[in-house]
């Protein structure tokens, strides 16, 4: 079984995760995997999957969580701070630059049209993502009703999300616990 | 103070962000546009579009909302609030993860969360459509994007570029 090759220092962690942040459009997780496993070989594919488990289990931006985990693994607390900073610094600067441009030119009809076009595409990408995730769910007749309930409560009734999620987790998680026990 | 309020609101949201920042769109809209009136519908949609067009993690939309609400301090406060709480939790938990990975309750939560995330992301899409007040041409683009994205293996950047070009030409 191949061992992970090298032990990155703080600088390498910052730069490695910067490259991930700056190359990712529409979800950077695949880029993180490529950098960690294939390009720099800081971890094997098995190690990557094992660590990703908790990052996906917990709420919050998965890829930030992953940067914390990888940073901690190689450089302890400092690594856990530097890796997510590297991931965010570049994209943050670009986003703020775009925000400045928006403040100046955002009211022009050309800019409004462009943003409208991107928003429409973004809406389509979200729908496609929801569709794919929905199709990947097993035992749809047990679980898809919970998706419908969330849409009703969040998009329809506009209930506060923390309560909806709490109730949803108890109900949907309860059904999942029961179904898991049957096998 | 608005920055403190922003920080507290987003820190609370980070605990229910199953599915990442994308799943939070409807709730961010509810808090920022409907409750506090910090932004209007049009600005919210525009910030979403800008975040789509920029490279980086999806969490950037949070940064942009913070920026528009309270400038640089707001941008940093919102981003930190979204990332820091779970980063601390994961820092403390990762060494014990193997101890509870695969346990029945852990798998039940993972399984139970995914249909909720589907509902949240779908809600986010309907919300963007509502807030942007799409006309028929924009809806056509939405449908075309869904079909193309599900059938072709194209990089998302191509879709963004096409949307920007069509919008720039005044067609959407």
Give the mean pLDDT of chain B. Answer: 93
**Topology, number of strands of chain B:** 0
> Helix proportion of residues of chain B, in percent?
over 70%
What's the helix count of chain B? 9
Q: How many discrete domains of chain B? A: 2
Name the chain pair with the biggest interface and residue counts per chain.
A-B, 96 and 105 residues
The ordered string of helix (H) and strand (E) elements of chain B is HHHHHHHHH
Number of helices of chain A: 7
Family (chain B): Belongs to the chromate ion transporter (CHR) (TC 2.A.51) family.
Protein name (chain B): Chromate transporter
GO molecular function, one term (chain B): chromate transmembrane transporter activity
Organism (chain B): Dechloromonas agitata
Secondary-structure blueprint:
The complex is a heterodimer of chains A (183) and B (172).
Chain A: H1 10-23, H2 29-39, H3 45-57, H4 62-105, H5 109-136, H6 140-156, H7 161-182
Helix pairs in contact in A: 1-2, 1-4, 3-4, 6-7
Chain B: H1 2-14, H2 20-23, H3 25-35, H4 41-53, H5 60-93, H6 97-100, H7 104-132, H8 136-151, H9 156-168
Helix pairs in contact in B: 1-5, 4-5
């Amino acid at each position: 079984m191949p061992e992970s090759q090298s032990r990155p220092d703080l600088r390498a962690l910052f730069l490695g995760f910067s490259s991930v942040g700056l190359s990712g459009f529409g979800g950077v997780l695949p880029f993180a995997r490529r950098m960690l496993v294939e390009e720099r070989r800081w971890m094997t594919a098995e190690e990557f999957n094992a660590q990703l488990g908790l990052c996906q289990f917990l709420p919050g931006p998965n890829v930030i969580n992953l940067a914390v985990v990888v940073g901690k693994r190689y450089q302890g607390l400092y690594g856990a701070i530097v890796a997510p900073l590297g991931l965010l610094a570049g994209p943050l600067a670009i986003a703020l630059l775009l925000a400045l441009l928006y403040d100046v030119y955002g009211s022009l009809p050309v800019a409004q049209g462009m943003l409208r076009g991107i928003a429409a595409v973004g809406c389509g990408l979200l729908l496609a993502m929801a569709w794919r995730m929905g199709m990947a769910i097993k035992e749809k007749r047990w679980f898809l009703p919970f998706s419908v309930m969330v849409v009703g409560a969040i998009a329809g009734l506009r209930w506060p999300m923390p309560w909806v999620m709490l109730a949803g987790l108890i109900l949907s998680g309860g059904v999942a616990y029961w179904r898991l026990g049957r096998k | 103070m608005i920055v403190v309020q922003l920080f507290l609101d987003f820190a609370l949201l980070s605990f229910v962000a199953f599915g990442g920042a994308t799943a939070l769109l409807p709730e961010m809209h509810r808090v920022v546009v409907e409750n506090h009136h910090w932004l209007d519908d049009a600005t919210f949609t525009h910030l979403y579009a800008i975040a789509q067009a920029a490279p980086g993690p999806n969490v950037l939309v949070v940064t942009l909302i913070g920026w528009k609400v309270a400038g640089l301090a707001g941008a940093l406060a919102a981003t930190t609030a979204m990332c820091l709480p779970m980063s601390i939790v994961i820092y403390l938990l990762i060494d014990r993860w193997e101890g509870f990975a695969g346990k029945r309750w852990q798998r039940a939560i993972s399984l139970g969360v995914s249909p909720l995330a589907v509902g949240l992301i779908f809600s986010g899409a309907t919300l963007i459509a509502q807030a942007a007040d799409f006309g028929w041409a924009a809806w056509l683009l939405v449908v075309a994007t869904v079909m193309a994205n599900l059938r072709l293996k194209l990089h998302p950047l191509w879709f963004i570029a096409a949307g920007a070009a069509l919008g720039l030409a005044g067609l959407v």
